[in-house]
Amino acid sequence: MIPGGGFGSGFLLGDRETIATAAHCVACEDVSELEIVFHPTEPRETRQKGAKLIYFDAKQDVALLHLSEEMPAYHPFFWTPRAADKEDDVTVLGNPGRAGFPDPMYSRSAQVKGTRPDEFFIDIEVKPGYSGGPVILDHTMNAVGITSFKYINTEKYEKDGQSFAKSSDIASDAYTHWAALSDSLKASKLQREEERYNERFHFIEADEVATAIFSDSFTFLLAVIDVIRDYKRHMNVAMSGLPNPVSVSVFKREERKAHREYLKEEGPKKAEEIRERISPDLLFERGYQERYDKIIEDPDLPKHLKEHLVSANEHFTTIREALENVVDPSGRSSKGKTLIEFVDYVVDEFNSAQFHCRKVAEECRGRTQ
What we know:
The chain is of the alpha+beta class. The chain has 3 domains: 10-76 and 181-198, Thrombin, subunit H (Beta Barrel), CATH 2.40.10; 89-168, Trypsin-like serine proteases (Thrombin, subunit H); 200-368, no CATH class. 45% of the residues lie in helices and 17% in strands. It has helices at 155-159, 168-179, 183-240, 248-278, 288-296, 303-324, 339-368, and strands spanning 10-12, 18-21, 36-38, 46-48, 52-57, 62-66, 89-94, 106-116, 119-122, 134-137, 143-150, 163-167. It has a 6-stranded antiparallel beta barrel with strand order 7-8-9-12-11-10. Strand 1 (10-12) and strand 2 form a beta hairpin. The longest helix has 58 residues, at 183-240. It is elongated and about 90 Å long. The two termini are 25 Å apart.
């Protein structure tokens, strides 16, 4: 449970006092305030705070946490024996959650669709909250990956796989190094990681907020395009029932009538249906709005970086309003746009949001590695 809202998943390693998870699941100002919940909502639920960072890599999206207390023997732990291979049958474990709160642990069957160094793709779409959880070989406790993020519906979505996992080798290597240290060196490393994280936190936050703006902007862009397609379908159906031939005046009158009907009735309903469908995937509805507001007020973040974030958010807001307000795409009023103008307008807004998000990412990359 992340202070201020949000949650992710993780898994216990063999010493019973180390947690592997995704880096974005521990991103908060004070890592020790993370609340680690074992078996949430179950009778054996166990909670603790005070974890410290052993390892944190924002680029690879992998983190290791040292727990304040060793977990009892009845809590299961996982091995990290090898990297994933294409066509491996795997199980994804995690706490997907609803209404901002974690569910009990769920498992989903999947298959590895493709691999590349340090990461692989699986053929299911994981829900928010699974991030940081283990991807295990079927019928084993062998974790080959750590759930990271998912593709939105693009060509890669079907070709490469729908969700993205980091190789557990990254966590395994970091753990092996940690386990070989003496107690005094472990204490030094924990202090050093805390200092490094504190120095980078503001830029990690800015990078993650920019990524969220880009992700939500793209989600809304696709949703707007869905509404436009629905509008064209409605118009085609309405006009196909006209007799042939038909006079220009009758055609235009019926076209205006069908247009008004869509904007008054079907358009808002379609926009709301899409809005409800995409809402669970919108990061700005799962704590990122608060993170954005906080980071804009952060005096330790450079002014030019905040300006890029503000600009990105403005363009994102425009795209969101294009869906929520069902902007008139008819071109028949002074406020309206033709379909082509409307598409160009929304795509331009997305490209602008993408530009500013990329500027933030470029600036932060040099500060967080």
